[in-house]
Design a protein that fits this description.
The chain has helices at residues 24-33, 53-64, 67-70, 100-107, 115-124, 129-141, 147-158, 184-187, 190-205, 222-256, 269-279, 337-348, 361-365, 372-375, 388-393, 426-436; strands at 11-15, 41-46, 76-82, 173-175, 178-179, 261-267, 288-294, 313-315, 327-332, 384-387, 400-405. The protein is an alpha/beta fold and 439 residues long. The chain folds into two domains: 11-86 and 236-436, Rossmann fold; 100-233, no CATH class. The strands form two sheets. It has an eight-stranded parallel β-sheet. A three-stranded antiparallel β-sheet has the order 5-4-8, with no helix packed on it. The two termini are 21 Å apart. This is Serine-threonine protein kinase. It comes from Streptomyces sp. R39.
Amino acid sequence: MADPGMSVAPYWELTFDADGDPDGAERDRLLGEIGGHGLHDLIVFAHGWNNDRSGATALYRRFFAPVPKLAPRARIGYAGVIWPSMRFCDEPIPDFPKSVVARDAEEAAAPVLDKDTRRALLETFPGRATVVHQIARMLDQRPANELAEFGRLVRLLVEVLPGGPQPLFAADTLAQGVPRSEPVLFSGDTTALCEEFAAALAGLQGGGEAAGFTVPNPWDGAKELLRQAAYYAMKRRAGAVGERGLGPVIGRLAEAAPEVRVHLVGHSFGGRLVSFALRGLPDGVRTVKSVTLLQGAFSHYAFAARLPHNPRACGVLQGRQNRIDGPLVCCYSHFDEALGTLYPLASRMADDAESALGEDVGRVLGARWGAMGHDGVQEVPGTRSLDLAAALRGPLAAPGCVNVDAAAVVKRGGPPCGAHSDIVHPELARVVLAAGRIG
């Protein structure tokens, strides 16, 4: 389908709600039209945290733009997944115009909830307007001795009904087949949690140097607690949308156009989404020929059959890479501060409350809490490791996991997320093409 605002054609969009239910008209349009374009390959991209459809399509437009020249003889179609996620508007994105909010955040004396992020929270968590306004007021006023109330409001904001599907999709690992419980992030002492986040942020702002023996004001970490709680909810949604939404649609696509080779690409939680789509594929579907994860925001043990710190536990997606008729390529960068510092800290809070104040958080907490986008797939036998130059020389066609150190290009971005969103590079588009044997 032609889209005058898109850099490539044919292009379709697939929209899903928070539980993974697709927009039926968009799904049927893709299924009905794809056979008429003579396509050999379809690249399906799932965004991470973005505020709205326009932010996601802007990413797709820029990422896809070099592909036709990189593979001029290939017959490629493109699809963009739209799912209800969000980005805190104070996070700058490399290669995109810096928002007024992001500029103001750099100069602000204390973290507050700007109006754009407030609006994003209202759209992402419908029916929670009163809670959002109370959270914003508390971040602005920083009332003494009320962090416990702030924590209660944050938990209320992101909770889901226990009877719905989303709680089943939050875990990255399973212990004897059972997902882990809700994290300490939602049940621990709010003051202690905010102190840890405040210390971690102080280290990032100081270029990684510890802030000495000074314990920061816990309110300095309160907005980060809110951010991580919201992202935990997005992580939960990404799994639901992938398994209950995108996976079955790919199954329908295999019936409608069995000759079309499908290539899944995901950034951040979008990487989690496309990975969970493998778990939602109908039996016998072998049309997924590659999966490329760009700064994947989920556990680097997600595909492991057993965990080094607990041999009775496994990754929630163990063995699912075998559903791909080709490679699972994981691009990572140590410049990604969101995944190198804040992700392991928030993930560690799923199990205990051991303090890492004033330390290099990623180093102190170790591999147990690592993310795909920081150091690649771990504990999967046969995983290959390449730098970006070697990956671009190829080939990447063999089945199995391939880690690609993309730090040569994924390296720009300031606190608190670093280079997490620095993914719009022709080199990464070339990795997608190499993984899929396209062109």
